[in-house]
Structure prediction request, 334 residues.
Amino acid sequence: MRLRPGRDADADAIIRLIGDCWAEYPGCVMDLDGEVPELRALASHAAGRGGAMWVAEAEGRVVGLVCAWPLTDGTWELAKMYVASAERGGGIAHDLADAAEAQARAGGATRMALWTDTRFDRAHRFYEKRGFVRQGPIRALADASNTIEFGYARPLTGAVVAVLDAAAAASAVVPLARVLVDCVADGASVSFMAPLAEARARAFWNDMARGVARGERVLIAAWLEGALVGTVQVLLAMPENQPHRGELQKMLVHPAARRHGLGRRLLAAAEDAAARAGRTLLTLDTASTAAEALYRAGGWIVVGDVPEFALNPDGTACDTRFFYRRLDSALPCG
Prediction:
C-alpha cells in the first residue's frame, strides 16, 4: 500500500472506485458527463483550484482517493474522499485525510470543511472520530441521486473554542467520550467511577446533546491543533425562581492537552455564553485543586467546602469546593 499524487491518467480507476462506493447506497447513481465531468481529469481539476489530489494504491490498483483545495478565509475543503470497501479498516482513510490536511496546513489553512451525503453514515462516523462536527444547514444538490448533504468542519491549527449547536453536539459524541474516559482514568472526579466504559461515556454525551437541542444547556468544545480535546457546559435549566442563574459543569481538558490555556478559554466562553443567555450569576463545584486555581484566577469566589461530598474515580472520598461568579451585565440574547 502506498500513497502518491493522483494523475489524470487515473481517471478510469477513480470513476470505477467512486461508482462502486455510490452503489453501496440505494438511489446513488453516477451521471458522469452530466454531473461530475471533473472526474475525467480530477488531478488537473484539483490543481486548477489551487489544491491537490492523492490516491492510495495497492498492488497497482487505486483503492483510495482524496482531494483538498482552498475555499476562503483560511478554510480548505476536503473533497472526493473514497476508499474501496475491501480496503476499509486498515488506516487508509486516515492516511489519505492526513495527507490532505497536511497540504492544507502547508497552504496556510486554519480550518477544514467538507460536505458528505446524508446517506453516507460510515463516512460520518469517520469524520466525527477525527474531530469534525456538523456545521451549518444541509444542502440539496438537485441531481440524479437526489443528494442532500451535511456540512462538517473543524479547526486545523492553534487553540480554538466554539459553542456547539444541537447537530454539532450530536456529531461530537465520539471525541467527547474519549476526553471523558481519559480524564476519569487520570483521576478527575466528574460523577463517574474508573474504569469508565466508552459506551457509557457516549451515552452520557448523547444525553447532553439532547439537552442542547431542548435549550437546557450550552455545550462548548475546544480543539488543539485540530484535535477535539476539551469541553465545558453551562446548565440553563434552573428552577423557576432562579431564572438568572446558570451552573458550570464538566470542565474537562484531556491530560495530554493541558498547559495550553484551554481551560481559560473554555471558562471565558462559558461565561460569555451564560451572559448571552441572560444569566447574571454562575455557580460551580469542583474537587480539583488544579481547577480551583483556574477559577480563582478568573474571579470566582469561594463559598465553602463540603467534606467527603463525592468519591474520586478510585473510590476514595474527596471534599468539594463551591464557587460563584457574578457576571457584570447580561448581554442581549441571540
About this structure: The CA atoms of residues 270 and 311 lie 26 Å apart. Confidence is low (pLDDT under 50) at residues 330-334.
